[in-house]
Amino acid sequence: MGEAPLPQRARSYWKTRISALHEELEKLLEAERAQLPPWLVVGFGTGIAAWFALDVRAQWAAVLFLCAGLAVAGFALVSGRAGRALGWFALAATLGCALVWARSARVAEPRLARPIVTDLSARVESVDFLAAKDPVRLILAPSDPELPPHVRVSVDETDFPAGIAPGAEIRLKARLAPPPPMALPGTYDFSRDAWFKGLGAVGKAMGPVTVSKAAKAHGLDRMRAELRQHILEHLPSSSAGIAIALATGDQNAVGADDAEAMRRSGLTHLLSVSGLHIAAVVAFAMFLTLKLLALSERLALRFNLVLAAAAVAALAGIGYTLLTGAQVPTVRSCVAALLILAGIALGRDAISIRLIAVGALVVLLFRPEALAGASFQMSFAAVTAIVALHSTAWSRRWFQRRDEGVPARLLRALAGMIATGLVVELALVPLALFHFHRSGLYGVGANIIAIPLTTFVIMPLEAGALLLDVAGWGKPLWLLCGVAIDGLIRLAHAVASAKGAVALIPSMPAWAFGLIAVGGVWLCLWSTPLRRWGLVPALIGAAGAAAAPSPDLLVTGDGKHLAIVRDGTPFLLRERAGDFVRQLLAEASGFDGDPLALGIRPFSACSRDACVAIIHRDGRDWRILATRSNYLMDWQSFIRACGEADVIVSDRRLPRGCVPRWLKLDRPALARMGGVSIVFGDTPRVETVADHVGAHPWVENER
Fold this sequence. Notes:
With about 700 residues, the chain is an alpha+beta fold.
């Protein structure tokens, strides 16, 4: 018989190759079968992330159809474990995208169309004290049907009368405005968060507040308020802020300087009630319960004390979670703690990647929008990195406890803490750079001291002081607690002020951040050498982030504020810009410090009404003209200046006769684009807020 025809031989060859690849894939998945379930949660999160990353409804619908098609193909066309894995992953992604889309529609509330000054009567829904900034922040339900159902108003403490608590009815005069959109490309999107919280306006009270119907806080709100006041009576304001954050989860109580020092030193996570704090509370409750119950010989012999202690610890964890406001990191940590306690009660080791996946799934099912927030991402990144590290054979070989002398045990424990700190810092650095444009570099060393100090000294002393205060004996413990908190604050300030303590980056491209995230998840979830392939996308993303150019020109969406960036230093158009704007432009420039005034620099010329600045890039000078007053200018001179400028920026509508050589950014243009970041060069690149936010519901509502 002769040889088969060439097309038939080619088909046979490729069929054999595909079959061999499928068999190899099945072997890999069989070796990783214990790690497959967490990928269901990753798929769910991928669908949610796709909805946030893509711009318009057509793209979201395409994701749904594509993922649904992949799910069908996986279940129906691909055999074995590979087909089932593809099917479940794609189905989870479909459900995640559909869930967050549906939730964005379900939480929709009317929004204020434009800024107004109004007299309003409202019922108080919540009260937040901002010790760092003096005002008290109220969430109100106005009685006027023409106003949004929920608004947020800041009130100066001097204008804040007694009797204001959730349920009170008040009258006040306030300036209200729509929730502010993202100010610059890649910065915090308050408008998105306000949408999911149901806030239709934000504003500031103008004058005193009148209480129509007083109310007293009750339930958990009352307990938080009483705890806050009780701690303020026993500790100085600086120490009290940290103690209040640990007891109630209210980070607003922390002073601005201390909060900034904690952030720069990599200790901010200590202020956010999450895994560390829940673990301390649960462990303390379980330890204390076991010791107290073991005092009774009868109980010790007849009952399972471990089970009873686990139940008490579970109640303590749930109570602490509710007391501190049930924020995303706290809920995640509480769910994880409950699963661990269940595993302990059943005599099994419950600490695993699956545990983290369950916690993430619980949060995302109820708050899918949490995925886009820094809190969710950093919380899960840290705990996943820790579990992944200590699940490796290398970690078990070096850090697992064993029968050896005390010096060796201490050295091994210290090495384990350092390795854990390094892994956590490595996991959090890209997240901090993406969300905040900065990351502390000395966090590992600071955390080695701060975590034990907080967990084993500050929190037990604070809990003991609160308990002993019932009998009036807590003063000595409050003194010790204050000393310990002062030590923590001094550590934070010392690390924060050290040279090179902070790494900064002007912006990280979304694609680079996505690749780093994919690589990190891949590294953490697999257990065989397959995990090493996660280094490829992670390193590509890191290289892309490092190579991202710094902006030359930053313009806020209202056109009032502008920064010319030269040699990494931002120079501001308006010298009297507020602290928020100065910090915003500094971070977006990758500058660690206070921006300078544009004024009369060698590369600029400013008058009362306008500034002209020159940006030199790639052998070419770019001429920037920006207005900075509301006064009329000489028509002939202004039109001539427009024609000589490459870019003109203004917070007003400019006449048609004002035509720059390249780009006109006046009020109508910025209303369409939002804030703008420009990199000049042979091919100038313009990045806008509109490019980042697309046509999501909170954006359409603004327009």
